[in-house]
Write a structure and sequence with these properties.
Length: about 240
Amino acid sequence: MPRLILIAASKSRFGARNMTRLQLSAHTRKNLMKSYTKKLRREGKIPATVYGRELQSKSIEVPLEEVEQILKSPGGRLSLIELKLDGKASKAHPVLIQEIQRDPITKKILHIDFHRVSMNEPVHASVPIVLVGEAPGTKQGGILEHFIRELEVKALPEHIPSHIDADVSHLQLGQSIHVGELKVPEDVEVLGPPPDIIVATVRMPVVHVEEVAAPEAEEETKEAAPSTAESGASEAS
């Protein structure tokens, strides 16, 4: 089971900034055959790869249960992890989850890539944007639309937030919140999208009006008046 190590937490609007640091046990995977990979999954383990700073790419295997606990932790897939390789504390590596491959149907985890990082060098990450609050404009019939769902950021590994809150509690009908208005920690640099891009807006619902065809003008009908032929009397000569 992963061991949780609590470190300082930041303000809640930035989400968990690696407030729980997790340790994950891993073992070198020497057998790369597909049959062995299937055997691993049956035993509750996941094939994985770790690479990055001062570390050659290694094929490893990690316990599925521990990985699932990390993904359910406050930091989620952005958690800073101490990867303990082959049971040796001296081989513990600070890593971030780089990529998770899942079965398209069952959604089960098939493979994970871990990226070894330096604690003194910033890294890039995609951080989710979470809408918080209730927009007053929705009580006036408006619809809240969420357009931008992630921020590309740059920060030291331990400063990466699990998410960024977008407060919509002030949005009236027709108002929006932009990327540049988001409250981001001072030690986190936003790389994109640009500041003027709309994150969320409250818009009026679209009303579809069906056109009703105008009735065709009725042709006026005239009644024909009866005609009478009168014969005049002629004088007989």
